[in-house]
Amino acid sequence: MTYLEKPIEIEEPKVEIISHGPLPKNTEDIPRQIRALATAISGISGVDYQILFDGMTSVTWFVDRLFDVIYYRIAQSAIFATEEINKKEHLLPNTTLGFSIYGSCDSVSTSLLSAMHLLTGKDQPIPNFGCKRRPALSAFIAEDRSALSIPIARLLGIYKVPQVSYASSVNALSDKTQFPSFLRTTPSDDFQAYGIAKLVLYFGWSWVGILAEDNDYGLQGSLLLKKELEKAGVCIEFQMVIPTVFSAKITNNIVDAIEKSTARAIVIFSTDNSLYQVMLTVANKNITGKIWLASDGWATFSKFSTRRFFKTCEGILGFSIRRGYMPGFKEFLNRLSPSKTQGDIFIRTFWEQLFSCQWPSRVQNGTGNENKVNEGSRLCTGSETLEGLDIPFLDMSDLSTSYNAYNAVYAVAHALHNLKHCQPGEGPFVNRSCADAEDFEPWQLLHYIRKVNFTNSNGEEIFFDANGNPPGIYDILNWQVTPENTFSFLTVGRFDSRAPSGQELTLNQSAIIWNGGQRQVPRSVCSESCPLGYRKTVQPGKPTCCFDCTPCSEGEISNQTDSTECMKCSDDDWPNQQKDTCVKKPMEYLSYEEPLGAILAAASTLTAVIPAAILMIFIKSKNTPLVKANNRELSYLLLVSLSLCALCSLVFIGRPVSATCLVRQVAFGITFALCLSCILAKTIIVVIAFKATTSDNKLKQWVGPQLAKSIVIVATSIQIILCVLWLTITPPFVGRNSSYHIGKIIMECNDGSSAAFWGMLGYMGLLAMVSFVVAFISRKLPDSFNEAKFITFSMLVFVSVWLSFVPAYLSTRGKYMVAVEIFAILASSSGLMACIFLPKCYIILLRPDMNTKEFLMGRGKFSTKKLK
Fold first, then answer.
1. Partner of 39 at 20 to 30 A CA spacing, among 214, 488, 548, 642?
2. Is the pLDDT of residue 579 over 70?
3. Domain that holds residue 846
4. Antiparallel, parallel or unpaired: β 582-584 and 573-575
């Protein structure tokens, strides 16, 4: 952009495409390679091209001025902005803003040459030499394609000449080290890549394909997209490159990959011209059901609005740079006319295309007669008007690129305004100086463009970040087939990088129509999501998005879909049946409420009542010879201890608490020690009594109640001492065992010291064995009722029970271990009671004739008669 009195006209370029072969009879039969090249050229405004065929030397097929009206409208938007600025008194007053337009012909070399023309002012530009008069060149508004902007930006960066692009979005241009003077009014592709990745995640697609055009725009954009997708856990099934020059082999390979792919979502980073042949081949193969995600390079490509693309392209979601409204722009376009627009070298071509006419000076035939109109054409008069025409050129619904070019011109104008209105001593340069508004350097204007911040006529704030980029704002478009058999680009959402994290993407999902007219969101996954209670297991040799669903192991849950790991429940918890949440483990202990506990409690009570009843019988019959002969005091004490043994088993039933854990084993050990001590005392007294029948026997002095008491006290005291030491050093405590039984917590009393427990049982076994040996020795002593025989049997029962108890006790846990111990207590105490006291009760209650001194001394006669 320069300060000039009038635009500079340039010669229209021409491109020739040579193809060997005969002339086709119909343009539809032109080889696809030729048509592809023609399509590529169609994006260049004001370009003539010829297609020459060998073998037809006298005939040349000529396509006149293939002209793209959209590019022409972009140029008109810049002109409109310039004229609008010149009319505003508050912006650049007393200054006329001018412009020069050069064509790039979609060529890097031509673009650089045009830039050098503008920098030097020479037809044959000489580097580092300029002959342009002041005012100097202000800034470049260029280019649309990143491939052309990059070399220009490298050149202009050397001279620090500002360059503001309205469509170049490649991310590399954000690097201010390489491109210090480049800015743009279109967002950088890193915003677009991030936005597309957010869109993919929004719909839950984890398996996608990527197509990228073979240039900086496609390759860098797809690379950014791939990083964003992989960072979010999305897998790429395939990534292929679309050639910029048509290749049938590569195109077919791409289409075959699309057809065979299981990924339904395919992201395409490309411009429209390069993509056309790929989508045409897809449409010809009738490949449907795909989810096409379009970058801004082809999101509004009107060439797909034909019937052959309806099945393929319906439902496309595209990212389009923000659309804006320029008040008065349509009226400005309506006023275009060859007679009113001076210096516009493109308007005559535009007029011919629009009104299907030819200017007299361009009418030709084979003889050179310039007054004859070609068949099917009419002469252009110039009086035609655009007013009221329904054409894409006048469609104000999609002014995205034109709107960005409009903002680019305004950005330069505001920068010039700020430069001109710098107050002396408040400038941004050395010593706070200001630039000379009539003779400034490009780098001085560049400073102001970087800092520009204004609100345009559309009410939108325009500014650049530190990298020369505007905010990433995109419209999300949905391609929907209209009743008029064309595509409507319906806005269904928006992406705004300025929004808080997580809120950048807004979408009206209900307004989206997918391929095939479906309303339901299609799936694009390699493997369906794993439900709750399962975890993902990666399939060997495949990406992480391809997996099998494996149920969580015992004790683990997953409460999210697609969990990669299962979480282990705490020791107190256990997975529910679905394995999606941890629930409290049930507590297991021997309770009174369950049948086993109730039965054992009843048995314990009964076993405690029977010795008490026998005790009452013995007390009632205390003066009978049988009771007196068997040391009735020891019998009383033994019956009491047997009753206590049975009652102490009740302490084992119920939920363990600290008190019961401390008491139950100690109570059991002491009461059984007392019981066995009484039996031992009885046995020893019987032996001593029979051995001391002679007058000179020394054992006679031991006969008496003192010996029995001493035996009981000493034998029981030893057990008491052992139990006290146990409670003092390592007392039992309440334990929660969650490892023995899966899914349950066993409430148990931990013995604290296994050695103390088994030591207590060992001492009881010692007392039992001594009692058994002594009783066994005295079993044949002469007597009508020798108690030693019954003690021998009782000790056999006792020892047998407790020897069986040891392996049973060690092989069980929880309530069954407690039940085993209770059973052993009841069985052993019942055995002692039955073997020692039931025969005596039989005689006392049923055979009183045997309960006499004579009978006991062996002098009485035995009667078999029952008492009446």
1. 488
2. yes
3. 595-674+712-856
4. antiparallel
